[in-house]
Design goal:
- It contains 20 helices and eleven strands.
- With 497 residues, it is α/β, with parallel strands linked by helices.
- It folds into two domains: 5-288, NAD(P)-binding Rossmann-like Domain (Rossmann fold, 3-Layer(aba) Sandwich); 291-492, N-(1-d-carboxylethyl)-l-norvaline Dehydrogenase, domain 2.
- A five-stranded parallel β-sheet has the order 5-2-1-6-7, with helices on both faces. It has a three-stranded mixed β-sheet with strand order 4-3-9. It has a three-stranded mixed β-sheet with strand order 8-10-11, covered by helices on one side.
- Strand 3 and strand 4 form a beta hairpin.
- The longest helix has 24 residues, at 291-314.
- One of its GO terms (biological process) is mannitol metabolic process.
- It is an enzyme of class 1 (oxidoreductase).
- It holds the Pfam family Mannitol_dh.
- Keywords: NAD, Oxidoreductase.
Length: 497
């Protein structure tokens, strides 16, 4: 017999009927539900069980907001089960640690009723607006760091500020209303995998405001906090098998559960003038400077994911754990991290980098997660500049080695031609596919630097002679030798290649 989530023994023990919205979260997907919402649920459970005099933090409930047409699915799934969902932690060997998460107590699909969303964001009780809108969702040019004022969404929201369509249009209008009402501004908390995500969020919000109201933009820049953070938890897409397995094993019917790895980390800049939940009680590292942790994660974990994806897809590998267990790919990733990535990092307080890298491989080889290389390779035009090209640039500036990082770029570029080494299709899912695929076709026709000429992705690297020369060498070697032979040569090559 199937039980509803509200009837499940795993359901939250705190009084969800007493919850009010303290956090509005834009972009509720698998990662938010596996990470920030799970931390808050843990905090609410802890406070409930301890019966602390400070209260149960139930005034920090999350109201999710969806802006895109596809977000209607999340609205329907959550509404059908009182906004509860199951979080499944998948350990190696098949052990599952299920929990029913209750910290999201409401969800608004903005196209249904934009005014209701704006009213909630303008309410004094809303003290944080958080974001997981993907690395490419900030409308900021990777090469220049500037907000794309020519994008259709930005133009619309500047011309019709009271009828926004984008995350930043909603944030700007809500802050305008709060300013007019004399209400303290909320804190804007980006939780996306971006270097300096707080700074990027500030750029997007302030620039959007400046397009229609420069005075408001100045007020936002002076009065609104944009803390940076580093977030980490591998969260693959939920499959129909996950849903069926949950129903079969636990008798729980859940329209959209979330699966993730056991590991989780959140390092957060402690800058919340309007207040925040006491996240430190449940393991969040509240710090003054996130940058060392952020660079560590982006340039070690996220860059490794790109290496697994682009080399693995050339070899016809489907899953991340298979790529991480492949001795040639694993040796290449370790070589890249040791020789090129780690040299660009700052000291990371409290972190042993050797242990961190070893932990990465234990996480990557967790077969229970079954994360696909297709997912890791999605939006590579946004991810590669943030996770890999910064390391290449820093090593170019320092006169350090760039062969391994540039070879990863060559593997990506070759994969964009759409065929792996078994002559099977490599499916490309990238917002810049219409621009990059013709360049990949020109590359295939013999124009070796066509792909890296895209200045929106590569910026000044497109004209750097050392990078261009190394890229052409690596692309040619890949074509001649094949991916596996090239992996072995690179991993075993000179440390100063």
């Amino acid at each position: 017999m199937n039980a509803s989530l509200t009837e499940s023994q795993l359901a939250p023990d705190y009084d969800r009927s007493a919850m009010t919205t303290g956090i509005v979260h834009i972009g509720v997907g698998g990662f938010h539900r596996a990470h920030q919402a799970a931390y808050l649920d843990r905090l609410m459970r802890r406070r409930s069980q301890a019966a602390t005099p400070e209260g149960g933090c139930l005034d920090w409930g999350i109201c999710g907001v969806g802006l895109l047409p596809g977000d209607a699915w999340m609205r329907d799934a959550l509404e059908s089960q009182d906004h509860l969902y199951t979080l499944l932690l998948k350990h190696p060997g098949g052990l599952r640690d299920p929990a029913v998460i209750g910290s999201i107590h409401d969800y608004l699909f903005a196209p249904d009723d934009p005014e209701t969303v704006l009213a909630l964001m303008s309410a004094p009780t809303t003290r944080i607006v958080s974001l997981t809108v993907t690395e490419g969702g900030y409308n900021v040019d990777d090469a220049t760091g500037e907000f794309r004022t020519s994008s259709p969404g930005a133009i619309h929201d500047a011309e019709h500020p009271g009828e926004p369509t984008t995350a930043f249009g909603y944030i700007v209008e809500a802050l305008r209303r709060r300013r007019e009402a004399g209400t303290e501004p909320f804190t804007v908390m980006s939780c996306d995998n971006l270097p300096g995500n707080g700074t990027v969020a500030r750029t997007a919000v302030v620039s959007q405001a400046a397009m229609s109201d420069p005075e408001l933009a100045d007020w936002i820049d002076a009065n609104v906090a944009f803390p940076s953070c580093m977030v980490d938890r591998i969260t693959p897409q939920t499959t129909s098998s996950d849903i069926a397995d949950l129903q079969r094993r636990l008798g729980i019917q859940d329209a959209w559960p979330v699966v993730c790895e056991p590991f989780t980390q959140w390092v957060l800049e402690d800058d919340f003038p309007a207040g925040r939940p006491p996240w430190e009680e449940v393991g969040v590292q509240m710090v003054d400077d996130v940058v060392p942790y952020e660079l560590m994660k982006l340039r070690l974990l996220n860059a490794s994911h790109q290496g697994l994806a682009h080399w693995g897809r050339l070899l016809g590998i489907e899953y991340a754990h298979e790529a991480a267990a492949d001795p040639d790919i694993a040796a290449w990733v370790r070589a890249y991290l040791e020789r090129e990535a780690r040299a660009t990092l700052r000291s990371v307080p409290g972190i042993d980098l050797d242990d961190y890298v070893d932990t990465l491989f234990r996480r990557f080889t967790n077969e229970a997660i079954a994360d696909t290389l297709f997912r890791l390779a999605q939006d590579a035009s946004s991810r590669m500049p943030k996770f890999v090209l910064g390391t290449v640039r820093d090593n170019l500036t320092a006169g350090g080695p760039i062969h391994l990082g540039t070879a990863m770029v060559a593997a990506w570029a070759l994969g964009e031609e759409g065929v792996d080494e078994r002559c099977e299709e490599i499916v490309i899912d990238d917002p810049l596919a219409d621009e990059l695929l013709p360049l990949a076709a020109a590359q295939r026709a013999g124009h070796d630097t066509a792909f890296i000429s895209h200045e929106g992705v590569f910026g000044d690297l497109a004209t750097d002679e050392r990078f261009r020369r190394t890229f052409v060498e690596e692309l040619g070697a890949l074509r001649r030798e094949g991916a596996r032979a090239r992996l072995r040569a690179l991993a075993g090559g000179s440390r100063q290649a």
